[in-house]
Amino acid sequence: MIDARALRKDFPVLDQRVNGRPLVYLDSAATAQKPRPVIDAVRRFFEEDNANVHRAIHALGERATAKYEEARRKVARFINAPSERTIIFTKNATESINLVAYSWARARLKPGDEILVSPIEHHSNLVPWQLAARATGATLRFFDVTEDGQLRLDNLDSLISERTRLVAVTHVSNVLGTIVPVASIVAAARRAGAVVLVDGAQSVPHMPVDVQALGCDFFAFSGHKMGAPTGIGVLYGREELLEAMDPFLGGGDMISSVRLSGSEWAELPYKFEAGTPPIAEAIGLGAAIDYLTAIGMDRVHAYERRLTAYARERLEQLPGITIYGPKERGGLLTFNVDEIHPHDLATVLDQHGIAIRAGHHCAQPVMEWLGVPATARASFWVYNTEDDVERLVEGLRAAKEFFGYVA
Ligand code: PMP
């Protein structure tokens, strides 16, 4: 089991008081805090190595390039990608998904084709497909969802047909915490010849991920939810598919030759990395991966499951609380309390030094499905403890009292 109290000391930002109370940070699903080794790696890069990559023939340029490419190899190993050629650095999960929507989907889909999406997606794995469908005449279809927020898999063979060209699905829901059995969906998609994109923004920071075992064609995630800086994301893609795709953005670094009459593209992965990339951010991601690897992703997952189960048990003891989503879940709890609007709840909790998320979580269709305009969400990572959960419970009691409900 991981020692969250010890790990917490690695995160300088957590060592502060907010509104007079020690900070309890329960919003890691929005963005996670950064451990000291990541902050140091980024600082060291700027203090010692800063230069552009893949261009300069000088010591700093070579060191910057070596570190940037080393980060790519770390990402490949972390998600068990077969080669670093299949790892494309982007600015976030959203851009990774859009890259596929533009470079793969728009060039291939036509009227009559279907894109199968789940109704529990973050907007970033829904809106790009709505745009692609609008541009190509393809149709969006949706998985069915069970009452507790899991994807129905017993009717997959009727949902996925020879018309299905793409299945886009989240690995872990950022609202319901649902862990989607991606490998079974991939198997059904394979039978129909469809391509599968997985949104791993909420899985990679929290559990071991092996893209080859999942069998998916594309896998997208963001660095900032796993201890890395903002501005760095990853797209893994199956090499044959990436090879066959045209670039997403054009410019420097993504070409092998340019003439006024036309250009040729650089080889993978550079074909998809136009312009100066997020160099320090990628190096920070490499450091975050080292940090998580030293802890062990199996242990991170086991710890979060235990902490989330504990939090659920404690919150369920509060009268008037509704918790959404299945019992087996990722490291977050989404809930509402009586008639207190989640924004009001978050405001009162903030007065007690507790940071949660309130709103629609960039998943308005999920809110519609739940029949509520918004929810509160507490999300956990390696630095959260049972004490944090107790502070949350205490804060919720205080909020109920403040709004005139007796706990
Ligand atoms: N997918 C899921 C499931 C998410 O939770 C998020 C971030 N909330 C994203 C995609 C988008 O991530 P980003 O904003 O870093 O692109």
Descriptive key words:
407 residues, alpha/beta, Aspartate Aminotransferase, domain 1, Aspartate Aminotransferase, domain 2, 2 domains, 7-stranded mixed β-sheet, 4-stranded antiparallel β-sheet, 14 helices, 17 strands, 17% strand, binds 4'-deoxy-4'-aminopyridoxal-5'-phosphate
Explained architecture:
- This protein is of the alpha/beta class and 407 residues long.
- The chain folds into 2 domains: 4-30 and 297-402, Aspartate Aminotransferase, domain 1; 38-293, Aspartate Aminotransferase, domain 2, CATH 3.40.640.10.
- The chain contains 14 helices and 17 strands.
- The strands form 5 sheets. A 7-stranded mixed β-sheet has the order 4-10-9-8-7-5-6, sandwiched between helices. A 4-stranded antiparallel β-sheet has the order 13-14-17-16, with helices on one face. Strands 1-2 form a two-stranded antiparallel ribbon.
- α8 (211-214) links the parallel β8 (195-199) and β9.
- α11 runs parallel beside α14 (386-402) and α12 (342-351) packs across α14.
- The longest helix has 20 residues, at 59-78.
- The radius of gyration is 22 Å and the shape is globular.
